[in-house]
Amino acid sequence: MPFSHHSHSGQFCGHAANTLEEVVQSALSKGMSTFCLTEHMPREAADFYPEEVDHHDEASLAKLYDDFYVEARRLQKAYASQIQLFVGFEGEWIRPGSLKLCQTILEKHDVDMFVGSVHHVHTVPIDFDTPMYHKARSLSNGTDEGIFADYFESQYEMLQALKPPVVAHFDLIRLKSDDPERSFKTWPQVWDKIERNLKYIAAYGGVLELNSSSLRKGMTEPYPQVEICKRFIELNGRFTLSDDSHGVDQVGLNFSRVLESIKKAGIEELVCLAPAGSPNSVAADERFPHVIWATISLKELEAHRFWKR
């Protein structure tokens, strides 16, 4: 029953490891019932990461996603009797041109879903390394409070433009900050933006992923922090599980610690992507009529053999 709605592979991502099929096999071996393949979307040449130097232009990076889509659909069919796979992408909001890039993928490929994320502030990566974070912060009055406010403003732009079915690592901005465990409520301006964004997500029916990647990077709580989860519960928001894995070793990693935060936040049920017509389902995104969100109680989730490994 455990599931993940956000993953990457070294075959199609320069900072990941293993082939896409190896990642799928890892999810299968760990007893996962649903696994979403969400490789990064193509980006403008100005936004290439250092490991993408082999891609000389935007067309080259776009072809990488095209190749991913073909392989992901092949695996979806090949493993259909063993695990439910869904094919999508991670839509990254960087600059105004990001909207067109996302629209191009949605027009070109019949994806099942996608996750929306922000990895940049002022077009500078904020989670790649500390020097880049500091560079971005210098453009936000030089303070963590300033860059946090700008991050959630960019996120709001992304939410309005894309309305992603899954909102990825909601508070990623804290990763390279001076105090990653700090309560957002200590900065009223930042907390106001967080509440605004959460209200918007709840209103259009978006789902927040409980992303375990923060835990392998040294933090004590998954994305988003428990205090954010509690506020989203008050807004009748929905949650799902994601490992944001970048290779076989990270598939399902630290899910037991995510379960602890789920209980701490008071989350009583999660949702998981399923084919349309599945039982215990709730409203789907009208852009993807062939899939639905299935509701799973915390009790059902805990009863799965995954947790006894």
TrEMBL record:
<keyword id="KW-0028">Amino-acid biosynthesis</keyword>
<feature type="domain" description="PHP">
    <location>
        <begin position="5"/>
        <end position="213"/>
    </location>
</feature>
<comment type="pathway">
    <text>Amino-acid biosynthesis; L-histidine biosynthesis; L-histidine from 5-phospho-alpha-D-ribose 1-diphosphate: step 8/9.</text>
</comment>
<keyword id="KW-0378">Hydrolase</keyword>
<protein>
    <recommendedName>
        <fullName>Histidinol-phosphatase</fullName>
        <ecNumber>3.1.3.15</ecNumber>
    </recommendedName>
</protein>
<comment type="similarity">
    <text>Belongs to the PHP hydrolase family. HisK subfamily.</text>
</comment>
<dbReference type="GO" id="GO:0000105">
    <property type="term" value="P:L-histidine biosynthetic process"/>
</dbReference>
<dbReference type="Pfam" id="PF02811">
    <property type="entry name" value="PHP"/>
</dbReference>
<dbReference type="InterPro" id="IPR010140">
    <property type="entry name" value="Histidinol_P_phosphatase_HisJ"/>
</dbReference>
<dbReference type="GO" id="GO:0004401">
    <property type="term" value="F:histidinol-phosphatase activity"/>
</dbReference>
<dbReference type="InterPro" id="IPR004013">
    <property type="entry name" value="PHP_dom"/>
</dbReference>
<dbReference type="GO" id="GO:0005737">
    <property type="term" value="C:cytoplasm"/>
</dbReference>
<dbReference type="InterPro" id="IPR016195">
    <property type="entry name" value="Pol/histidinol_Pase-like"/>
</dbReference>
<keyword id="KW-0368">Histidine biosynthesis</keyword>
